[in-house]
């Protein structure tokens, strides 16, 4: 079933929308959640929460790209679950590596000014990724949006793990430079 037809089922409040979403994108959502959570029980809960949030957000929202909208919901719920789990206990895994890698080039301020500038920062990062080569953009997105491990990315792109690490380091450095030029990061 096409994405537009699935969205239309949501607008009709037809429960078949959830089944069609699960059939078409269930494995996709599980992969996103698993990369962040690494625990199948949490992944299953995340997927259930994703479908619940999807059901409650469509309508009124009519996503332009259903797959991306679904990925963002899954990712946000998984990150929230991970954060709650980490407040109870400190853990490791890919998500901690990803957050540590980005820590140096993404400002972390809990101020009103930061909240106001957050949209602008997101736009700068989106622009940065759009201007990368297709391969570099895909590698960056795999690591920092889908939180895939270095091993997974290396296998996906036919590269050595060390090459992926070097590419990601260069991409983070370029992003940090861009953010310094935009005055979001102070050297």
Automatic annotation (TrEMBL):
Q: Which residues form the RNA polymerase sigma factor 70 region 4 type domain?
A: 124-175
Source organism of the structure: Butyrivibrio fibrisolvens
User: Mind telling me which InterPro entries this protein's record contains?
Assistant: RNA_pol_sigma-70-like, RNA_pol_sigma-70_dom, RNA_pol_sigma70_r2, RNA_pol_sigma70_r4_t2, RNA_pol_sigma_r2, RNA_pol_sigma_r3/r4-like
Family statement: Belongs to the sigma-70 factor family. ECF subfamily.
Which Pfam families does the record associate with it? Answer: Sigma70_r2, Sigma70_r4_2
Which biological processes are named by the entry's GO terms? DNA-templated transcription initiation
- Which segments constitute the RNA polymerase sigma-70 region domain? 24-84
The keyword Nucleotidyltransferase belongs to this UniProt entry's keyword annotation: no
Q: Which UniProt keywords apply?
A: DNA-binding, Sigma factor, Transcription, Transcription regulation
Protein name per UniProt? RNA polymerase subunit sigma-70
Source organism superkingdom: Bacteria
NCBIfam families the UniProt entry points to = sigma70-ECF
Q: Name one GO molecular function term.
A: sigma factor activity
């Amino acid at each position: 079933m096409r994405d537009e037809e699935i969205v239309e089922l949501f607008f009709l409040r037809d429960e078949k929308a959830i089944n069609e979403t699960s059939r078409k994108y269930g494995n996709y959502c599980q992969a996103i959640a698993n990369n962040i959570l690494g625990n199948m029980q949490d992944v299953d809960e995340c997927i259930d929460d994703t479908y619940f949030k999807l059901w409650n957000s469509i309508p009124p929202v009519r996503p332009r790209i259903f797959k991306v909208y679904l990925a963002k919901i899954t990712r946000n719920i998984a990150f929230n679950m991970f954060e709650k789990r980490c407040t109870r206990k400190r853990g490791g895994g890919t998500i901690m590596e990803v957050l540590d890698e980005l820590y140096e080039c993404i400002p972390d301020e809990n101020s009103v000014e930061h909240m106001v500038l957050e949209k602008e920062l997101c736009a700068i990062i989106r622009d940065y990724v759009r201007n990368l080569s297709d391969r570099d953009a895909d590698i960056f997105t795999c690591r920092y949006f889908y939180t895939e491990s270095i091993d997974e990315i290396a296998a996906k792109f036919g590269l050595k793990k060390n090459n992926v690490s070097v590419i990601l380091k260069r991409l983070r450095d370029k992003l940090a430079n861009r953010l310094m030029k935009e005055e979001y990061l102070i050297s």
